[in-house]
């Protein structure tokens, strides 16, 4: 049984809260080294988002584009980063959870559980 899933969670560290309603685009690097967009999703009220479910998530190199400019604009906050790309190698047969810790002038990410 394929248990692979791909998910994210965004926390806005400038206010100490989850970042809700942020659009996230998932792309896969194809065999000719070009990005192929797979889908767009949106974080829920808790800042969480299931990006790809089992059966939709083959091994490969993925790019997550977090469209955070609109999130900050809605709050009348200037940001240096209108979008953030995170590229991950998802070659193991396991769940991948990639959180984003966000503020208007910086960000950090890590391999979550």
TrEMBL record:
Function: Catalyzes the hydrolysis of 5-hydroxyisourate (HIU) to 2-oxo-4-hydroxy-4-carboxy-5-ureidoimidazoline (OHCU).
Keyword Hydrolase: yes
Origin species: Drosophila gunungcola (fruit fly)
PANTHER family assigned: 5-HYDROXYISOURATE HYDROLASE, URICASE AND TRANSTHYRETIN-RELATED
Keyword presence, Hydrolase: yes
InterPro entries: Hydroxyisourate_hydrolase, Transthyretin/HIU_hydrolase, Transthyretin/HIU_hydrolase_d, Transthyretin/HIU_hydrolase_sf
Domain Transthyretin/hydroxyisourate hydrolase: 7-112
GO biological process: purine nucleobase metabolic process
CDD domains: TLP_HIUase
Name of this chain's protein: 5-hydroxyisourate hydrolase
A GO molecular function held by the record: hydroxyisourate hydrolase activity
Oligomer status and interactors: Homotetramer.
Domain of life: Eukaryota
Enzyme Commission number(s): 3.5.2.17
Keywords of the record: Hydrolase, Purine metabolism
């Amino acid at each position: 049984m394929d248990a692979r899933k791909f998910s994210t969670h965004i926390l806005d560290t400038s206010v100490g809260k989850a970042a809700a309603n942020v659009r996230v685009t998932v792309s896969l690097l194809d065999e000719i080294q070009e990005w192929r967009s797979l889908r767009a999703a949106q974080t829920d009220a808790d800042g969480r988002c299931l990006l790809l479910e089992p059966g939709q998530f083959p091994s490969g190199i993925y790019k997550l584009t977090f469209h955070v400019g609109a999130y900050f604009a809605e709050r009348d906050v200037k940001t240096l980063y209108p979008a953030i790309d995170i590229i991950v190698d998802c070659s193991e047969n396991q769940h991948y959870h990639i959180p984003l810790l966000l503020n208007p002038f910086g960000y950090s990410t890590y391999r979550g559980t």
